Amino acid sequence: MTTISPATIERMRTCRIIPVITIKSLDQALPLANALIAGGADVLEVTLRTDCALEAIKQMADAQLEAFVGAGTITRPSDVDAAAKAGAEFLVTPGTTEELRVALKAYDGAVFPGAATVSEALKLRDEGFTIQKFFPAEAAGGAPFLKSIAAPLPDIRFMPTGGVSPKNARDYLSLPNVIAVGGSWIVPNDLIEAGKWDEITALTQASRDALA
Fold first, then answer.
1. Is residue 137 within 8 Å of 125, Cβ to Cβ?
2. What angle do helix axes 98-106 and 77-86 make, rounded to 10 degrees?
3. pTM above 0.90, yes or no
4. Is the terminal CB of the chain with fewer CB neighbours within 10 Å at N or C?
5. For residue 163, what are the CA distances in angstroms to 78, 103, 130, 134, 209?
6. Alpha carbon distance 115, 123 (integer Å)
7. Cα 183–185–186 angle (5° rounding)?
């Protein structure tokens, strides 16, 4: 499904920072999700970078959290099917091959396919994908690039990810064609490994407040 509801877009705008989560152990999944939700981040992207990622998504889906839980690092058609079966409500890709594009269009949920160039963005738009992941954001030109294409591509909006940090997040969020940023700085591995959920909640809230 390529159409994304206004309610979903507003939820992402309100969240501002979409945490890009890497779950290394299943016992981290629900405590981390709850910590982020408590900090105001209720759109959660769980990357398919670990063996337990799909099961983590399933745990979150089964728990019926007050959150919009999706799968990131979707790189092949089989990932689309696996993420859907796990209960992912949205999908995010780092890039988009022709084969992957077909699978994404058949997925019954929100999709944010990756693009790094104007040509890629236009091709995705013509397939109906008008909200895209801009990745790798900083390496691909950063906020200045997105600012420069806002006027010629007024019908495409982006979720920049990759190199986004507290130092430059506001530069992205101030742009009319950015609905949210993806970032991992609010889910640092050391805090996750130590189970410091209260600190993750505080970091999430402080990061969001700084960008209000």
1. no
2. 30
3. yes
4. C
5. 27, 28, 22, 11, 20
6. 9
7. 95
Closest CA to 6 of 164, 157, 150: 157
Please tell me whether the peptide bond between 31 and the residue prior to it is cis, using omega within 30 degrees of 0: no
* Rounded distance between C-alpha atoms, residue 45 and residue 92, angstroms: 8
Please give the backbone phi and psi of residue 67, each rounded to the nearest 5 degrees, phi first: -155, 160
Clarify whether 66 is annotated catalytic: no
From 45, 58, 89, 138, the catalytic residue? 45
Residue 102: C-alpha distances to residues 8, 78, 107, 127, 129 (Å): 22, 12, 9, 10, 12
- Identify the burial level of 1 via C-beta atoms within 10 angstroms of its C-beta, where 0-12 means exposed, 13-18 middle and 19 or more buried: middle
133 is catalytic: yes
pLDDT, tens digit, 9 for 90 and up, residues 119-149:
999 999 999 999 999 999 999 999 999 999 9
Q: Which of 58, 89, 133, 138 is catalytic?
A: 133
Q: Tokens in use for 52?
A: 């337990």
181 SS3 class: strand
**CB of 91 closer than 8 Å to CB of 104:** yes
